[in-house]
């Protein structure tokens, strides 16, 4: 069995949740920066012409949420039963909805879109606050159930990029604040975020955040 290989650009972007999953669970992997010769060498290798891409021996998997789900199934990070798995899937799709709004603002309308995006953020975060309160263990950093799941890393990354954008955005959300701090303080996550590799990566490809 070879190590996983994560092929992506040297940004946090849609690859960061996978990196967090690897680091928090002590899973060994190599990372390949595909920025150089992307169009000529790499793009045609990707099923949808985009990254991140996870390679696991002969498996070549793109789409960031598909990657997280695959790793979740393989490493016991998909809840303890079918009901928890269903909530994990639901939260994953909610994260995707907000991430799309964030990415659209960042890349297409940052100057005029940032203020209304931040103003609307409390309404967008409220459903996650309710879900973590009802179905998770915020103080342990579990968004669903009483153990780690892949969606924890997607939610943590979503909160993290929004905290950078709007530093006080979690002030009125005690469950999300506790969840965010719990994952931030995990040894594997904390050590990773102190590395030069993490510090040197921009959140987005255009440098806006």
From TrEMBL:
Enzyme Commission number: 2.5.1.18
Transmembrane segments: none
Domain GST N-terminal: residue ranges: 2-79
Keyword Transferase: yes
Pfam families (UniProt xref): GST_C_3, GST_N
Keyword Metal-binding tagged: no
Protein origin, superkingdom: Eukaryota
Gene3D superfamilies in UniProt: 1.20.1050.10, Glutaredoxin
The organism's taxonomic lineage, starting at the top: Eukaryota, Metazoa, Spiralia, Lophotrochozoa, Mollusca
InterPro entries listed in its UniProt record: Glutathione-S-Trfase_C-like, Glutathione-S-Trfase_C_sf, Glutathione_S-Trfase, Glutathione_S-Trfase_N, GST_C, GST_pi, GST_superfamily, Thioredoxin-like_sf
Enzyme class: transferase
Residue ranges occupied by any GST C-terminal domain in the UniProt entry: 81-203
Assembly and oligomerization: Homodimer.
Protein name according to UniProt: glutathione transferase
Keyword terms, alphabetized: Transferase
Family, per entry: Belongs to the GST superfamily. Pi family.
